Amino acid sequence: MLTKYFTKVVVRFNPFGKEAKCARLLLSAIPPAQRISGVTIQNELLTAESTKKPIVKITFKDKTEMEADPSTLNFKELGNHFDRHSRKLSLKESIESQ
């Protein structure tokens, strides 16, 4: 997953729900150096009685926000969902640098 263009990551999930694996894998995919140098990570654990829905919300460097439901997607599908925009930013960056 291309995490280079992330500026903010919001993850909300039930640690005992089916969405926990996907959400935890997403959080672990962000390199430690990137966590220190500028990505803001907000993590909220939900209880079984909570009425809030699980969510993964990413804000990119160009201020675009994308969100997905980790209970309906597996990690690969979630990665592909966010990589679409990251690849656009990567292409834009490579064109501007030439």
UniProtKB/TrEMBL annotation:
Gene Ontology MF: a single term: structural constituent of ribosome
PANTHER family in UniProt: 54S RIBOSOMAL PROTEIN L44, MITOCHONDRIAL, LARGE RIBOSOMAL SUBUNIT PROTEIN ML53
Protein's cellular compartments: Mitochondrion
Major subcellular site: mitochondrion
Protein name from the UniProt record: Large ribosomal subunit protein mL53
Highest taxon of source: Eukaryota
Keyword set includes Ribosomal protein: yes
One GO term describing the cellular component: mitochondrial large ribosomal subunit
